[in-house]
Amino acid sequence: MKCSDIPVFPSRKDVVTLAAQDFGSESGEFIMGILDLYGVNPSEPHRELIQVALVFYAKGDVDKLLSLVEKAKRDYRDCLYDEAFASNPLAKELEDKGWEFFPAAPPLPHYSPVTKDVAARLLKVNWKQIDQWVKDGKLRPLGKSHGQYRFEIEELERFQRESEPEVNIAEVWQEQQAK
After folding, report:
1. How far apart are alpha carbons 61 and 27 in whole angstroms?
2. Per-residue pLDDT tens over the stretch 37-62
3. How far are the Cα atoms of 11, 43, 103 from residue 94, in angstroms, in the given order?
């Protein structure tokens, strides 16, 4: 699997598909059972996203996957950082020379807050509809900045899942990032 194979907002179906590609479809239930150990507790966020990253870093090795899930349950950030460090060939060389190495972010999307206008584009509605959903309590803003609502991408995903989606936010987000 390449980083480019990882969807911006992976679904359960994406996790199953990518796990089958790396571990083989015959061990699907077993592998999904291991992956499902992550994301059970509220302290284990971004379930599908982290599960896909764990599959990516395990590279088809079941023992490695078990180790990664165990580590991610303690703190997914440390797990992903360590794996990004380990997978970078320059890391050891720089470390040997006494340099501190900070790897590039693991293959996960950036979850920064977006403005009401961006949220409207992602949901393919006008900003007045966003205001109405906030007023009705259907969409929860992160807060206001310079008089404008800001939303976490995760909140837009939640809203999309719970409402009758007209559009796949992940596809729209990828289109917006490509522009």
Report:
1. 12
2. 998 888 888 888 899 889 988 989 99
3. 37, 34, 11
| Of 62, 96, 130, the domain-final residue | 96
Q: Would you say residue 169 lies in a domain?
A: yes
Tokens of 69: 């899930």
H/E element, 94: helix 89-96
**Beta pairing partners, 98:** none
Residue 117 CA to residue 133 CA, distance in Å, equals 14
SS3 168: coil
**Per the structure, how many domains does the chain have?**
2
Residues 149, 150, 153, 154: is their CA dihedral positive or negative? Answer: negative
| Closest C-alpha to 17, from 4, 6, 3, 33 | 6
- pTM score, whole prediction: 0.53
Residue 52 domain-assigned? yes
- Strands in the chain per DSSP E: 114-115, 143-145, 148-151
Tell me how far apart the alpha carbons of residues 18 and 52 are, in angstroms, rounded to a whole number. Answer: 7
78 and 48 within one domain: yes
